[in-house]
Amino acid sequence: MSMITKAYREKEGFRLFLKLLMIFLISRLFMLIMMIVYNKTKGVDYSISFLMNEWDAKWYARMTEKGYMFPTDYNPQASWAFFPMYVLTCRCLYLICGGLISADWVGIIVSNVCIFIAAYTAVKYVRDLKTSKLKAEVDGRKKESLASLADQGKEHEGPSGDGNRSLLIGLLMFMAPYTFYCAAMYTEAMFIMFIALFFRACQKRKYLLAGLFSALASASRIVGCTLVFALLVELYLDYEERAQVQTLAKKVLGFVLDTIEQPKRVLGLMLCPLGTFSYMLYLYFFCGDPWAFMHVQIAWREEHYFPILGVLYKACTGQIENRYTYMGWFCIAMFGIYIYMIVRKHYSMGIFGIIALLIPLTSHVMSTCRFTVGSYVVFVGVYDLLDRMKGKLLWLKYLILAGFFVAEAFALYIWYNSDCWLM
User: Cα(271)–Cα(206) distance, rounded to whole angstroms?
Assistant: First the structure.
């Protein structure tokens, strides 16, 4: 116990781990209470693994047990619609355990570990972001000494001095609406983890490592490929800090030449879509169609709408189905958050968020709530917005948080009821 106490006092990272773990455990207790409420109101006695693992989770469970399978004569839906990274991780753990842990619980364990790592990474990201912004501001005051700079960084915004404010993003990732997907056998938690690690690597200017995390993300969902655009933005911003030229044309040309001269950065960019390309190669040998994951989507949805604008217009005006009207307006709100992020100079995250939302909107608004939460960056945008609510606006911040928790409880109850009209 004394060793733990000493580690707690001396290691800021360990203190963060324990604080975040407490929030995580409270969030899971909340889900457990909601499960008890559901069982009591419905007069049933379903288990945690049964209630948490609905819809696509059943696909992941079967794939964890048996791997990828061909569709049957009575069901045209195929397992290759689901990208392999999450499946491989669950299947490896399942085989290591020798089947002693059910596939459902393996998925729950993997997802919860992934979202905790993601939240820890996110807290470190926003803390360092605050510190760097403060240092940049103080650097502009030429009259202040470097010692004063360090003191102010620690006193106000540094890792040990910002109190628990940065933990807010962890709270959002555990208990905001639709985050229950990250506790179920869904790929969202793993995808969020890789994206969080990607942006953390970019923050530390480890661009080759960022490319690797992007490759892993693109093996989890095809949207991971689009992190290449976020990496390009990060590389350009890095170059712009060092560039002396003033005109945009010279900056762009200089950026291209500067990037080409650094092989690690080029390799990082090339790695970004590697996960998806590897899966396409596998599908070519497995079923003869490298685009099979896309072609099989017709088994889930047959409707055709004009991409993006047509989809949003039909959804927001209630011309698809009533349940999709909500999702249409939800997407509009998310675009607003991403635009806010760009205004706040979270350029790469805002751009990635917009692209990640545009991709599903080329066909439908179905599951866009889950996809948006699963793209991670919305947490940073909402966190930034809430963190700025101080003084007289503090009441609004707490009201929004309370609304989030109520919305999560409602959505979770609907989820337990196996009715995904809000998902």
Answer: 13
Q: Round to the nearest angstrom and report the end-to-end CA distance of the chain.
A: 44
Within this chain, do residues 61 and 123 fall inside the same structural domain, yes or no?
yes
pLDDT on residue 252: 86
The pLDDT score that the predictor gives to residue 322 is 81
Q: Do 420 and 414 form a contact (C-beta atoms < 8 A)?
A: yes
Q: DSSP readout, 24-36? A: HHHHHHHHHHHHH
User: Regarding predicted confidence, which is higher, 143 or 236?
Assistant: 236
Q: Is the domain of 40 the same as that of 160?
A: yes
C-alpha to C-alpha distance for 123 and 132, rounded to whole angstroms? 14
**Torsion region of 181: left, alpha or beta (phi above 0 gives left; psi -120 to 50 gives alpha):** alpha
Whether pLDDT at 300 is above 90: no
Q: Is 59 domain-assigned?
A: yes
- The answer to whether 283 and 290 have CB atoms below 8 angstroms apart is yes
- What pTM value is reported for the model? 0.89
Buried b (16+ CB within 10 A) or exposed e, 136-165: eebeeeeeeeeeebeebbeeebbbeebeeb
Task: Mark which of 259, 287, 315 sits at the end of a domain.
Answer: 287
Band (pLDDT 50/70/90 cuts) for residue 422 is very low
Number of domains into which the chain is organized: 2
What DSSP assignment string belongs to 4-24?
Answer: HHHHHHH-HHHHHHHHHHHHH
Structure-model confidence comparison of residues 43 and 211, the more confident one: 211
Residue 97 contacts residue 106 (beta carbons within 8 Å): yes
* 204 to 59, 200, 208, 209, 255: CA distances (angstroms): 37, 6, 11, 10, 19
User: 278: burial class by Cβ within 10 Å (0-12, 13-18, 19+)?
Assistant: middle
CA distance 97 to 251: 54
In the DSSP assignment, the letter for residue 204 is T
The Cα 225–Cα 232 span in angstroms is: 12
Among 153, 185, 217, the domain boundary falls at 185
User: Among 58-62, 203-207, 291-295, whose mean pLDDT is lowest?
Assistant: 291-295
> Which residue, among 199, 175, 198, 179, has the nearest Cα to 188 in the 3D structure?
179
| pLDDT exceeds cutoff 80 at 4 | no
Burial of residue 28, with CB atoms counted within 10 A of its CB: 0-12 exposed, 13-18 middle, 19 or more buried: middle
